[in-house]
Amino acid sequence: MQNHMKVSFHNNHSFLQRVNNLPHGPGWSCRKVTVWGNLEDDDRVPLQENVELWSRDPVECVKELIGNPLFKADMAYSPARAYVDRAGQHRVIDKMWTADWWGETQKALPKGATMSAWPVYMSIGNIAKAKRCQASAQATIIIGYLPAGKLDCFTPNAHSLAGYRLFHHCMALLLHPLIAAGQDGAEMVCADSQIRCVHLILAAYVTDFPEQCLVSCCKKNCCPKCLVAGNERGDGLNSVMHDPELTKKILERCKNGQHPPEFEENGLRAVYKPFWADMPHCNIFLTFTPNILHQLHKGVFKDHLVKWYVNIVGEEEMDACFKAMPDYPGLCHFKKGILAVKQWMGSEHKEMQRVFIGLLTGAVPSRVLVVLRIHTMDTLEALQTALAVFHTNKDVLKELAIQEHFNIPKLHQLTHYVDSITLLGAADGFNTELPKRLHIDFTKNAYHASNKWDYKEQMALWLQQQEAVFLRGAYLHWESQQPLFAGGTEHHSFGPDSDSDSESEDTDSPITTLSSQFATAEGVVVTHILAKVPAHPHQMVAKIVTAHGAINFLTTLQTFLHKNHPHTTIVPSLHNHFDVYRQVVIIAPPDQRVSDVPKQWHIRATPEVVASGRKPSCPAWFDMAMISDRPRSSRLWTLDGVQVAQVCTIFSLPHQFGTYSRALTYIEWFTPFRPPDPSSQMRQVLCSTHQLRHNAAVIHVDEIMGQSVDVRLRSGNAYEAASDFYLNEFINGEMFGVSVISSLDTG
């Protein structure tokens, strides 16, 4: 490699020396912290323990983030209010700068000031949540390693309190620079090359419930945000919030030897100097954000809801229902049920939630399904209403002897969700899944790179080297883009990973990819893409009829041609051959209620493949989809003017029918949506028939609205097993948006 590439280093040591000379982020420093215990040695001298606090200056870290030109397009410097409508009556709360906290706190700062920041994995609210939550973007960085001492110098009954005090002492040392920067501000060069006076305010603290109690100095059986009584946590009451000034006064009185009754009433721990005591403009009790991973996915859903409903329907029935779920693109199918799963992750919980209500519809009493809808609504008003409905109907679980009480801390935390989202922005911007992912990069990988002896110093150096390489690479990438920005136009392409829908198809073929685009009335573009080469070229009509179940193929195609291609004189017959495709890939612009990234669906129309030799058989996949009656003018994210159909065949017209570039599909209709079921709120559809035969049609592929859907069977494992279905509106965020949220908008 040295001979051919002519590198400037000759071994690993010289390479790392050059890496160390590259520009890097804020440097690391080590502070020794001495902890004096309540145990004594033989000479009656208190035992002590020395620990190390490795940290970086958080102000310098903010300068690094806010001045990074890679975040320029994702950066905001002032609060704003966003609305769905031009009249400004329907407000959107999404990113942090669209919520209330930023605007309210900005009023208390000098005119022209900018603010942001939160630790210990720290990022800034100026960066859009989509970019901030990308681990690879390094928009969230580590600012310190807190010591995890054994504290053997304390008696067992004093060990827990000593851990509280050590945490707050180290956090106070770590975040001390934020006090002056929050009060007076600090001038920083921002990503847009402007110099601003930035006030660093601790705004949001993203962590799990035990650490929330640790930070708020309260006991773990109390709420870290409010003063709800232990026996009232299941009542859905709006309790008085903790007051930071009052809390500091209570702790100060305890330090002076007094015994205020509020100390026990508020469930406090004797941490006399919390790290947040001197933080300007900081109400620590309001900084705790909704914890979707631990409170919803693992807490309320897995630990409670699933157990309740397993007790109602039985373990065998629940497992059988999960095994019987029809296939859906991108859906995890629990082929062995859920009881065989030993290690549960957040991803498994999310997959279960996508089918849970459809699975239980008809299997549990209607009042139980009303209770279950607690965590499905996505608007603030609907979330509050759903929570009230749950508390109104939750006693049915007591009547069924499923649950004795509802004094559950994680269930109580749901009462704070609306206020937290209104104050700080959408909950997905503060998920604890990101710190868990960063823990691998910043801690585990760093530790494994050390020699396991005096490892913290080596970890800090390794992280500095990794950061230097990342910054160098980011700079080179940015520099390479300059001519493009200066003299050209940047093009973004959103497409599937492959332009072929079959391994056997020729991806090197010069044939142009079949694709079509249409613009809705709102100007958004939806793209439908087929493979360059069809998976099944020159298929006879008889094969299409038998393999795809397209019984009325010829008659529906003739009707289509008469309406859309009247100049052709050829009548389709059994002797014609058609190119047949496995799937169509549909790429639609993002639904802003769900995500900021474009959405991609795969609509499959694949017949059964019989086992041959060592190659196993493959079942047929004929997906359901939304079909629009107004493909070029209808709204994209509503159920207005759409109907469910099963896509049986995707094909193109042969040349003898003349030039016709748009691809076609043979579909079988379902009936229009019935009103939502009163208990499950799921819409019911039936197979549309005429004289005991499916109502079928041939339509343009681009009339599919970019939404593959899941019509959920109540039993069985094939769509042919029943004629009565529920539309599963919880299969993904986009389907939830077009069904549930659209109903709220029109209700």
Layout of SSEs?
Elements: H1 2-5, H2 12-20, E1 29-40, E2 46-55, H3 58-66, E3 82-83, E4 91-92, H4 100-106, E5 114-115, E6 121-122, H5 129-132, E7 141-142, E8 144-145, H6 156-175, H7 177-184, E9 186-189, E10 195-199, H8 209-216, H9 244-255, H10 261-265, H11 292-313, H12 315-323, H13 346-353, H14 356-360, H15 366-372, H16 380-393, H17 395-399, H18 409-413, H19 417-424, H20 433-448, H21 455-487, E11 515-519, E12 525-529, E13 536-540, H22 541-548, H23 553-564, E14 577-581, E15 583-588, E16 599-606, E17 621-622, E18 624-628, E19 642-652, E20 664-669, E21 684-686, E22 689-690, E23 693-694, E24 696-700, E25 704-709, E26 711-712, E27 724-727, H24 733-746
Parallel strand pairs: 5-10
Antiparallel strand pairs: 1-2, 2-8, 3-4, 6-7, 9-10, 11-12, 12-15, 13-14, 14-19, 15-16, 16-17, 18-19, 18-25, 19-20, 20-24, 21-27, 22-23, 26-27
Helix pairs in contact: 11-12, 11-13, 15-16, 20-21
